[in-house]
Amino acid sequence: MDRTAQLTFRPATREVVYDPGPAPDSPHLRAARVLEGNWTGTSTVPSRGLYPHQWSWDSGFIAIGLRHLSPLRAQTELETLLAAQWGDGRIPHIVFNPSVPLDAYFPSPDFWRSSTAGRAAGAPRTVQTSGIVQPPVHALAAWLVHCADPGLSRARGFLAGVYPRLAAWHRYLLHRRDLGGGGLASVVHPWEQGMDNSPCWDAPLARVTPAPARSFRRADLAHGAPEDRPTDLDYGRYVRLATDYRDRGYADGGSAFAVEDPAFNALLIASEHSLARIARELGATGTARQARAERLTGVLIDRLWDPAEGMFFCRDIRNGRDIRNGQDTRSSQDARSGDLIPERSVSGLVPLLLPTLPRAVVAALVRTLAGPHFGAGTRLVPSYDLLGEAFDPHRYWRGPAWFNTSWLLERGLRVHGETERAGALREAMLDTADTSGFAEYVDPYTGAACGATGFSWTAALTLDLLEAKAADATNGAKGGDLG
After folding, report:
1. Which residues contact 108 (CB under 8 A, 6 or more apart)?
2. Is-catalytic flag, 440?
Protein backbone atom coordinates (compact mmCIF):
# COMPACT_ATOMS: atom_id res chain seq x y z
CA MET A 1 0.00 0.00 0.00
CA ASP A 2 2.97 2.34 0.52
CA ARG A 3 3.66 4.52 -2.44
CA THR A 4 7.03 3.96 -4.12
CA ALA A 5 9.04 5.78 -6.76
CA GLN A 6 7.25 5.92 -10.09
CA LEU A 7 6.92 7.74 -13.38
CA THR A 8 4.00 10.17 -13.32
CA PHE A 9 2.22 11.71 -16.34
CA ARG A 10 1.19 15.35 -15.92
CA PRO A 11 -1.77 16.05 -18.25
CA ALA A 12 -1.45 19.84 -17.98
CA THR A 13 2.06 19.88 -19.48
CA ARG A 14 1.92 16.45 -21.20
CA GLU A 15 5.23 15.44 -19.66
CA VAL A 16 6.39 12.37 -17.77
CA VAL A 17 8.30 13.12 -14.57
CA TYR A 18 10.02 11.05 -11.91
CA ASP A 19 8.10 10.94 -8.63
CA PRO A 20 10.28 9.59 -5.80
CA GLY A 21 7.27 9.14 -3.51
CA PRO A 22 7.24 10.06 0.18
CA ALA A 23 10.47 10.11 2.13
CA PRO A 24 11.16 6.99 4.24
CA ASP A 25 9.16 7.05 7.48
CA SER A 26 7.39 10.25 6.46
CA PRO A 27 4.02 11.30 7.94
CA HIS A 28 2.48 10.13 4.66
CA LEU A 29 3.84 6.62 5.09
CA ARG A 30 2.99 6.48 8.78
CA ALA A 31 -0.61 7.46 8.01
CA ALA A 32 -0.75 4.89 5.19
CA ARG A 33 0.45 2.16 7.56
CA VAL A 34 -2.42 2.96 9.96
CA LEU A 35 -4.96 2.46 7.20
CA GLU A 36 -3.24 -0.69 6.00
CA GLY A 37 -3.25 -2.10 9.53
CA ASN A 38 -6.96 -1.35 9.98
CA TRP A 39 -8.08 -2.71 6.61
CA THR A 40 -10.18 -5.90 6.80
CA GLY A 41 -10.30 -6.75 3.11
CA THR A 42 -13.59 -4.99 2.37
CA SER A 43 -13.62 -2.05 4.80
CA THR A 44 -11.56 -0.24 7.42
CA VAL A 45 -12.14 -0.44 11.18
CA PRO A 46 -11.69 2.83 13.08
CA SER A 47 -9.44 1.08 15.62
CA ARG A 48 -8.50 -2.59 15.91
CA GLY A 49 -9.06 -2.73 19.66
CA LEU A 50 -11.67 -0.12 20.54
CA TYR A 51 -13.87 -0.19 17.40
CA PRO A 52 -13.46 -3.56 15.62
CA HIS A 53 -16.36 -3.19 13.13
CA GLN A 54 -17.27 -0.80 10.31
CA TRP A 55 -18.67 2.58 11.35
CA SER A 56 -20.75 4.71 9.01
CA TRP A 57 -19.34 8.24 9.12
CA ASP A 58 -15.87 6.88 9.85
CA SER A 59 -15.97 5.07 6.52
CA GLY A 60 -16.95 8.30 4.77
CA PHE A 61 -13.92 10.14 6.13
CA ILE A 62 -11.68 7.10 5.64
CA ALA A 63 -12.67 6.87 1.97
CA ILE A 64 -11.75 10.54 1.51
CA GLY A 65 -8.19 9.73 2.59
CA LEU A 66 -7.97 6.30 0.98
CA ARG A 67 -8.67 7.82 -2.45
CA HIS A 68 -5.10 9.16 -2.44
CA LEU A 69 -3.65 5.68 -1.85
CA SER A 70 -6.08 3.45 -3.71
CA PRO A 71 -9.22 4.83 -5.38
CA LEU A 72 -10.41 1.24 -5.79
CA ARG A 73 -10.15 0.58 -2.08
CA ALA A 74 -11.91 3.88 -1.34
CA GLN A 75 -14.77 2.88 -3.62
CA THR A 76 -14.95 -0.54 -1.98
CA GLU A 77 -15.11 1.10 1.47
CA LEU A 78 -18.28 2.95 0.56
CA GLU A 79 -19.80 0.07 -1.41
CA THR A 80 -19.38 -2.27 1.57
CA LEU A 81 -21.17 0.16 3.86
CA LEU A 82 -24.00 0.82 1.41
CA ALA A 83 -24.56 -2.89 0.90
CA ALA A 84 -25.87 -2.97 4.49
CA GLN A 85 -28.47 -0.26 3.85
CA TRP A 86 -31.99 -0.93 5.16
CA GLY A 87 -35.07 -1.07 2.97
CA ASP A 88 -36.37 2.24 4.37
CA GLY A 89 -33.18 3.96 3.23
CA ARG A 90 -31.28 4.30 6.49
CA ILE A 91 -27.56 3.55 6.53
CA PRO A 92 -26.82 1.90 9.90
CA HIS A 93 -24.12 3.37 12.07
CA ILE A 94 -22.37 -0.01 12.56
CA VAL A 95 -21.98 -2.93 10.16
CA PHE A 96 -20.84 -5.87 12.28
CA ASN A 97 -18.03 -8.22 11.34
CA PRO A 98 -19.29 -11.74 12.19
CA SER A 99 -15.75 -12.95 12.91
CA VAL A 100 -15.39 -10.54 15.86
CA PRO A 101 -16.43 -12.03 19.24
CA LEU A 102 -19.66 -10.61 20.68
CA ASP A 103 -17.91 -9.40 23.84
CA ALA A 104 -15.38 -7.31 21.88
CA TYR A 105 -17.79 -4.38 21.58
CA PHE A 106 -21.02 -3.28 23.24
CA PRO A 107 -23.73 -2.90 22.08
CA SER A 108 -23.11 -6.03 20.04
CA PRO A 109 -25.29 -7.62 17.32
CA ASP A 110 -27.29 -9.59 19.90
CA PHE A 111 -28.36 -6.29 21.47
CA TRP A 112 -29.51 -4.59 18.24
CA ARG A 113 -31.20 -7.72 16.78
CA SER A 114 -31.41 -5.92 13.45
CA SER A 115 -32.59 -8.83 11.32
CA THR A 116 -35.58 -9.47 13.61
CA ALA A 117 -36.40 -6.19 15.37
CA GLY A 118 -35.68 -4.25 12.18
CA ARG A 119 -37.61 -6.51 9.81
CA ALA A 120 -40.48 -4.06 9.31
CA ALA A 121 -37.99 -1.30 8.44
CA GLY A 122 -36.24 -3.50 5.89
CA ALA A 123 -33.10 -4.48 7.79
CA PRO A 124 -30.87 -6.80 5.72
CA ARG A 125 -31.02 -10.51 6.51
CA THR A 126 -27.47 -11.42 5.49
CA VAL A 127 -25.56 -8.97 7.68
CA GLN A 128 -26.03 -7.74 11.24
CA THR A 129 -26.09 -3.99 11.87
CA SER A 130 -27.11 -1.46 14.47
CA GLY A 131 -30.48 0.24 14.05
CA ILE A 132 -29.49 3.89 14.38
CA VAL A 133 -27.64 6.12 11.90
CA GLN A 134 -24.73 8.57 11.79
CA PRO A 135 -24.08 11.89 9.98
CA PRO A 136 -24.61 11.74 6.21
CA VAL A 137 -21.13 12.50 4.91
CA HIS A 138 -21.35 9.70 2.34
CA ALA A 139 -22.34 11.51 -0.86
CA LEU A 140 -19.62 14.09 -0.31
CA ALA A 141 -17.16 11.23 0.15
CA ALA A 142 -18.45 9.40 -2.94
CA TRP A 143 -18.00 12.48 -5.12
CA LEU A 144 -14.45 13.10 -3.87
CA VAL A 145 -13.58 9.42 -4.38
CA HIS A 146 -14.89 9.60 -7.95
CA CYS A 147 -12.80 12.71 -8.63
CA ALA A 148 -9.64 10.90 -7.53
CA ASP A 149 -9.85 8.56 -10.54
CA PRO A 150 -12.83 9.32 -12.81
CA GLY A 151 -11.71 6.72 -15.35
CA LEU A 152 -11.74 3.89 -12.84
CA SER A 153 -15.01 5.16 -11.35
CA ARG A 154 -16.73 5.19 -14.73
CA ALA A 155 -15.30 1.83 -15.73
CA ARG A 156 -16.64 0.21 -12.57
CA GLY A 157 -19.95 2.07 -12.63
CA PHE A 158 -19.17 3.35 -9.14
CA LEU A 159 -21.40 6.43 -9.12
CA ALA A 160 -24.21 4.68 -10.98
CA GLY A 161 -24.14 1.99 -8.30
CA VAL A 162 -24.09 4.23 -5.24
CA TYR A 163 -26.35 7.04 -6.43
CA PRO A 164 -29.72 5.27 -5.90
CA ARG A 165 -28.65 4.18 -2.43
CA LEU A 166 -27.48 7.68 -1.49
CA ALA A 167 -30.69 9.18 -2.84
CA ALA A 168 -32.74 6.74 -0.74
CA TRP A 169 -30.62 7.63 2.31
CA HIS A 170 -31.36 11.32 1.87
CA ARG A 171 -35.08 10.63 1.35
CA TYR A 172 -35.17 8.74 4.61
CA LEU A 173 -33.56 11.62 6.49
CA LEU A 174 -35.60 14.38 4.89
CA HIS A 175 -38.95 12.62 5.30
CA ARG A 176 -38.87 9.97 8.04
CA ARG A 177 -36.64 12.08 10.26
CA ASP A 178 -38.30 15.47 9.86
CA LEU A 179 -39.68 15.03 13.36
CA GLY A 180 -39.89 18.75 14.07
CA GLY A 181 -41.89 19.47 10.93
CA GLY A 182 -39.61 22.31 9.90
CA GLY A 183 -37.67 20.57 7.15
CA LEU A 184 -34.54 19.45 9.02
CA ALA A 185 -33.55 15.92 10.00
CA SER A 186 -33.63 14.97 13.67
CA VAL A 187 -31.38 12.55 15.52
CA VAL A 188 -33.07 10.19 17.98
CA HIS A 189 -29.95 9.11 19.85
CA PRO A 190 -26.71 10.97 20.75
CA TRP A 191 -24.71 8.29 18.93
CA GLU A 192 -26.45 9.28 15.70
CA GLN A 193 -25.03 12.77 15.74
CA GLY A 194 -21.57 11.31 16.35
CA MET A 195 -20.65 13.58 19.27
CA ASP A 196 -21.85 11.08 21.84
CA ASN A 197 -21.54 12.84 25.19
CA SER A 198 -21.60 16.48 24.08
CA PRO A 199 -22.97 18.84 26.75
CA CYS A 200 -25.63 19.71 24.17
CA TRP A 201 -27.33 16.45 25.09
CA ASP A 202 -27.30 16.90 28.87
CA ALA A 203 -30.72 18.56 29.10
CA PRO A 204 -32.53 16.27 26.62
CA LEU A 205 -30.94 13.18 28.19
CA ALA A 206 -31.98 14.26 31.70
CA ARG A 207 -35.52 13.21 30.76
CA VAL A 208 -34.35 9.64 30.03
CA THR A 209 -34.34 7.05 32.81
CA PRO A 210 -31.00 5.22 32.53
CA ALA A 211 -30.81 1.48 32.11
CA PRO A 212 -29.43 -0.25 35.25
CA ALA A 213 -25.64 -0.45 35.24
CA ARG A 214 -25.82 -4.22 35.74
CA SER A 215 -27.73 -4.63 32.48
CA PHE A 216 -24.76 -3.86 30.22
CA ARG A 217 -20.97 -4.22 30.13
CA ARG A 218 -18.83 -1.42 28.74
CA ALA A 219 -16.15 -2.90 26.49
CA ASP A 220 -14.81 0.59 25.72
CA LEU A 221 -13.26 0.93 29.19
CA ALA A 222 -10.90 -1.94 28.42
CA HIS A 223 -9.28 0.21 25.72
CA GLY A 224 -9.47 3.75 27.09
CA ALA A 225 -9.04 5.63 30.34
CA PRO A 226 -12.38 6.08 32.15
CA GLU A 227 -11.69 9.81 32.54
CA ASP A 228 -11.54 10.11 28.73
CA ARG A 229 -14.83 8.30 28.11
CA PRO A 230 -18.55 9.02 28.74
CA THR A 231 -19.73 8.37 32.29
CA ASP A 232 -21.70 5.29 33.36
CA LEU A 233 -24.77 7.51 33.82
CA ASP A 234 -24.49 8.73 30.23
CA TYR A 235 -24.06 5.18 29.01
CA GLY A 236 -27.10 4.00 30.92
CA ARG A 237 -29.19 6.61 29.10
CA TYR A 238 -27.72 5.66 25.73
CA VAL A 239 -28.65 2.02 26.38
CA ARG A 240 -32.18 2.96 27.44
CA LEU A 241 -32.80 5.02 24.29
CA ALA A 242 -31.39 2.30 22.03
CA THR A 243 -33.42 -0.40 23.79
CA ASP A 244 -36.65 1.55 23.47
CA TYR A 245 -35.99 2.28 19.78
CA ARG A 246 -35.27 -1.39 19.11
CA ASP A 247 -38.38 -2.52 20.95
CA ARG A 248 -40.51 -0.20 18.76
CA GLY A 249 -39.14 -2.02 15.71
CA TYR A 250 -36.91 0.97 14.89
CA ALA A 251 -39.97 3.04 13.97
CA ASP A 252 -39.28 6.77 13.98
CA GLY A 253 -41.30 9.40 15.79
CA GLY A 254 -41.76 8.02 19.29
CA SER A 255 -38.40 8.73 20.91
CA ALA A 256 -38.15 10.83 24.06
CA PHE A 257 -34.94 12.24 22.56
CA ALA A 258 -35.19 14.12 19.25
CA VAL A 259 -32.83 16.95 18.35
CA GLU A 260 -32.15 18.97 15.21
CA ASP A 261 -28.37 19.28 15.08
CA PRO A 262 -26.50 21.82 12.93
CA ALA A 263 -23.53 19.61 11.98
CA PHE A 264 -25.73 16.64 11.05
CA ASN A 265 -27.89 18.81 8.83
CA ALA A 266 -24.93 20.72 7.39
CA LEU A 267 -23.42 17.43 6.26
CA LEU A 268 -26.77 16.43 4.76
CA ILE A 269 -26.85 19.71 2.82
CA ALA A 270 -23.21 19.35 1.73
CA SER A 271 -24.01 15.86 0.52
CA GLU A 272 -27.05 17.18 -1.36
CA HIS A 273 -24.66 19.48 -3.24
CA SER A 274 -22.52 16.43 -4.00
CA LEU A 275 -25.54 14.39 -5.12
CA ALA A 276 -26.33 17.20 -7.57
CA ARG A 277 -22.84 16.84 -9.02
CA ILE A 278 -23.16 13.06 -9.14
CA ALA A 279 -26.49 13.41 -10.96
CA ARG A 280 -24.88 15.67 -13.55
CA GLU A 281 -22.01 13.22 -13.99
CA LEU A 282 -24.60 10.50 -14.66
CA GLY A 283 -26.36 12.60 -17.31
CA ALA A 284 -29.16 14.21 -15.29
CA THR A 285 -29.43 17.93 -14.58
CA GLY A 286 -29.01 17.93 -10.79
CA THR A 287 -30.98 21.18 -10.72
CA ALA A 288 -33.61 19.99 -8.25
CA ARG A 289 -30.99 18.70 -5.82
CA GLN A 290 -28.99 21.91 -6.08
CA ALA A 291 -32.13 23.92 -5.35
CA ARG A 292 -32.95 21.65 -2.42
CA ALA A 293 -29.48 22.14 -0.93
CA GLU A 294 -29.85 25.91 -1.18
CA ARG A 295 -33.36 25.81 0.30
CA LEU A 296 -32.21 23.62 3.20
CA THR A 297 -29.41 26.08 3.92
CA GLY A 298 -32.08 28.72 4.45
CA VAL A 299 -34.08 26.38 6.68
CA LEU A 300 -30.96 25.66 8.74
CA ILE A 301 -30.44 29.37 9.29
CA ASP A 302 -34.09 29.95 10.07
CA ARG A 303 -34.30 27.21 12.68
CA LEU A 304 -30.83 26.93 14.25
CA TRP A 305 -28.93 30.20 13.70
CA ASP A 306 -28.50 32.65 16.60
CA PRO A 307 -27.17 35.96 15.25
CA ALA A 308 -26.53 37.35 18.74
CA GLU A 309 -24.18 34.46 19.55
CA GLY A 310 -22.70 34.18 16.08
CA MET A 311 -23.21 30.43 15.70
CA PHE A 312 -25.74 27.65 15.22
CA PHE A 313 -27.37 25.78 18.09
CA CYS A 314 -29.16 22.45 18.48
CA ARG A 315 -32.95 22.49 18.76
CA ASP A 316 -34.59 20.16 21.30
CA ILE A 317 -37.90 19.38 19.66
CA ARG A 318 -39.05 17.24 22.60
CA ASN A 319 -38.65 19.99 25.17
CA GLY A 320 -41.73 20.00 27.39
CA ARG A 321 -43.41 17.26 25.38
CA ASP A 322 -45.01 14.15 26.80
CA ILE A 323 -44.17 10.95 24.92
CA ARG A 324 -46.36 8.02 26.01
CA ASN A 325 -46.43 4.70 24.22
CA GLY A 326 -44.69 6.30 21.27
CA GLN A 327 -47.31 9.07 20.96
CA ASP A 328 -46.71 12.81 21.35
CA THR A 329 -49.46 14.40 23.40
CA ARG A 330 -48.70 18.00 22.39
CA SER A 331 -50.41 19.81 19.57
CA SER A 332 -48.99 19.71 16.04
CA GLN A 333 -48.12 23.40 16.34
CA ASP A 334 -46.07 22.75 19.49
CA ALA A 335 -44.40 19.84 17.74
CA ARG A 336 -42.90 22.23 15.23
CA SER A 337 -41.20 24.43 17.78
CA GLY A 338 -39.00 23.22 20.59
CA ASP A 339 -36.20 25.26 22.09
CA LEU A 340 -32.63 25.97 21.12
CA ILE A 341 -30.14 24.33 23.49
CA PRO A 342 -27.86 27.06 24.90
CA GLU A 343 -24.60 25.10 24.66
CA ARG A 344 -21.78 26.09 22.32
CA SER A 345 -20.48 23.02 20.49
CA VAL A 346 -18.20 22.64 17.49
CA SER A 347 -21.33 21.31 15.79
CA GLY A 348 -22.55 24.91 15.64
CA LEU A 349 -19.52 25.90 13.54
CA VAL A 350 -19.58 23.04 11.01
CA PRO A 351 -22.18 24.76 8.75
CA LEU A 352 -19.27 26.96 7.66
CA LEU A 353 -18.82 24.11 5.16
CA LEU A 354 -21.86 25.24 3.17
CA PRO A 355 -21.12 27.32 0.05
CA THR A 356 -24.33 29.41 -0.07
CA LEU A 357 -24.24 30.77 3.48
CA PRO A 358 -24.84 34.54 3.55
CA ARG A 359 -21.69 36.61 3.99
CA ALA A 360 -22.85 37.95 7.35
CA VAL A 361 -23.29 34.40 8.70
CA VAL A 362 -19.86 33.37 7.41
CA ALA A 363 -18.20 36.42 8.99
CA ALA A 364 -19.88 35.75 12.33
CA LEU A 365 -18.87 32.07 12.30
CA VAL A 366 -15.25 32.97 11.55
CA ARG A 367 -15.24 35.46 14.44
CA THR A 368 -16.68 32.84 16.79
CA LEU A 369 -14.17 30.25 15.62
CA ALA A 370 -11.29 32.62 16.38
CA GLY A 371 -12.81 34.04 19.58
CA PRO A 372 -12.57 33.13 23.27
CA HIS A 373 -15.03 30.22 23.17
CA PHE A 374 -13.07 28.15 20.61
CA GLY A 375 -9.79 29.85 19.70
CA ALA A 376 -8.16 31.10 22.89
CA GLY A 377 -4.71 29.49 23.04
CA THR A 378 -5.75 26.20 21.42
CA ARG A 379 -3.84 24.16 18.85
CA LEU A 380 -6.98 22.63 17.33
CA VAL A 381 -10.66 23.51 17.51
CA PRO A 382 -12.18 22.12 20.74
CA SER A 383 -15.38 20.10 20.57
CA TYR A 384 -17.02 22.31 23.20
CA ASP A 385 -16.95 25.85 24.54
CA LEU A 386 -13.66 26.58 26.33
CA LEU A 387 -15.56 28.81 28.75
CA GLY A 388 -18.45 26.43 29.32
CA GLU A 389 -19.07 24.95 32.76
CA ALA A 390 -18.99 21.42 31.32
CA PHE A 391 -15.68 21.87 29.46
CA ASP A 392 -13.21 19.02 30.00
CA PRO A 393 -10.10 18.89 27.77
CA HIS A 394 -9.90 15.08 27.93
CA ARG A 395 -13.42 13.66 28.14
CA TYR A 396 -14.56 12.58 24.67
CA TRP A 397 -16.83 15.26 23.11
CA ARG A 398 -16.88 17.58 26.12
CA GLY A 399 -13.80 19.56 25.07
CA PRO A 400 -11.10 17.56 23.27
CA ALA A 401 -10.29 18.37 19.64
CA TRP A 402 -11.22 15.88 16.93
CA PHE A 403 -9.64 15.66 13.51
CA ASN A 404 -12.81 15.14 11.48
CA THR A 405 -14.48 18.32 12.77
CA SER A 406 -11.26 20.30 12.31
CA TRP A 407 -11.02 18.93 8.76
CA LEU A 408 -14.58 20.08 8.05
CA LEU A 409 -13.81 23.53 9.41
CA GLU A 410 -10.57 23.76 7.43
CA ARG A 411 -12.53 22.91 4.31
CA GLY A 412 -15.23 25.43 5.21
CA LEU A 413 -12.67 28.19 5.65
CA ARG A 414 -11.35 27.46 2.16
CA VAL A 415 -14.85 27.37 0.68
CA HIS A 416 -15.28 30.98 1.82
CA GLY A 417 -11.82 32.22 0.86
CA GLU A 418 -10.30 32.23 4.34
CA THR A 419 -7.12 30.60 3.03
CA GLU A 420 -4.72 32.01 5.64
CA ARG A 421 -6.81 30.74 8.55
CA ALA A 422 -7.32 27.44 6.76
CA GLY A 423 -3.60 27.09 6.18
CA ALA A 424 -2.80 27.66 9.85
CA LEU A 425 -5.41 25.11 10.92
CA ARG A 426 -4.09 22.60 8.38
CA GLU A 427 -0.53 22.92 9.66
CA ALA A 428 -1.69 22.48 13.26
CA MET A 429 -3.68 19.38 12.30
CA LEU A 430 -0.78 17.81 10.42
CA ASP A 431 1.65 18.39 13.24
CA THR A 432 -0.75 17.19 15.95
CA ALA A 433 -1.89 14.11 14.06
CA ASP A 434 1.64 12.86 13.53
CA THR A 435 3.03 13.67 16.99
CA SER A 436 -0.01 12.15 18.71
CA GLY A 437 0.33 8.83 16.88
CA PHE A 438 -2.81 9.58 14.84
CA ALA A 439 -4.89 9.75 18.00
CA GLU A 440 -8.66 9.46 18.11
CA TYR A 441 -8.82 12.91 19.73
CA VAL A 442 -6.47 15.24 21.62
CA ASP A 443 -6.25 17.84 24.34
CA PRO A 444 -7.07 21.04 22.41
CA TYR A 445 -4.37 23.04 24.21
CA THR A 446 -1.43 20.63 24.27
CA GLY A 447 -2.24 18.16 21.51
CA ALA A 448 -1.71 15.25 23.92
CA ALA A 449 -3.28 12.03 22.67
CA CYS A 450 -6.58 10.80 24.13
CA GLY A 451 -8.58 7.69 23.32
CA ALA A 452 -7.17 5.24 20.79
CA THR A 453 -4.05 5.82 18.71
CA GLY A 454 -3.63 4.59 15.17
CA PHE A 455 -7.14 5.91 14.51
CA SER A 456 -8.28 5.53 10.92
CA TRP A 457 -10.04 8.78 10.17
CA THR A 458 -7.18 10.75 11.70
CA ALA A 459 -4.72 8.98 9.41
CA ALA A 460 -7.03 9.27 6.39
CA LEU A 461 -7.68 12.97 6.81
CA THR A 462 -3.97 13.55 7.38
CA LEU A 463 -3.35 12.03 3.96
CA ASP A 464 -5.98 14.30 2.44
CA LEU A 465 -4.40 17.39 4.01
CA LEU A 466 -0.92 16.34 2.89
CA GLU A 467 -2.13 15.91 -0.68
CA ALA A 468 -3.90 19.28 -0.57
CA LYS A 469 -0.76 20.94 0.78
CA ALA A 470 1.33 19.44 -2.01
CA ALA A 471 -1.23 20.63 -4.57
CA ASP A 472 -1.14 24.14 -3.10
CA ALA A 473 2.65 24.17 -3.33
CA THR A 474 2.34 23.37 -7.04
CA ASN A 475 -0.73 25.39 -7.99
CA GLY A 476 -0.98 28.04 -5.28
CA ALA A 477 -3.43 28.15 -2.35
CA LYS A 478 -6.90 29.31 -3.25
CA GLY A 479 -10.46 29.23 -2.07
CA GLY A 480 -12.70 26.45 -3.25
CA ASP A 481 -15.96 24.60 -3.02
CA LEU A 482 -17.17 21.24 -1.80
CA GLY A 483 -15.61 19.34 -4.73
Report:
1. 96, 102
2. yes
